[in-house]
Amino acid sequence: MSELPRPDAATATAETVKNLLLAHDAFSRWLGVEVAEVGPGYARLTLAVRPEMLNGFGALHGGVTFAAADTAFGLACNTHGRQAVGLSATIDYLEAGRPGDRLTVEAREESLKHKIGVYQVRVSNQHGAVLALFKGTAYRTSQEIPL
Fold it and tell me: Does the UniProt entry include the keyword Hydrolase (predicted)?
């Protein structure tokens, strides 16, 4: 009988951080965020666009798109086990989300230094259309996340 592969320490840390952060994040629960995958410097989330997330024109509210991207950014920048906080974030809205869309929000680490991390987040719908591109810069504190 062969053993199942064991996750490496970095992946295990990322999973533990994900569980800790989401356990205390009521807003992300309200958004309906589901974490599909997490790893060192990486997070992929999904969520469904619900009627209460729409703006007055029937399109996905930009604040919801930003919040979903910010959640992925927050997860990705904390996956190394050291508390990180956002310094700045920008977003480009490329296409409107629609009712019933299933969004994928994918954050990738572009640069990681001792004190600063830079992340790109892509928000796309179920058809692969890119709805938004988000860039976040995080400050990495010296505080270890209790694992």
Answer: yes
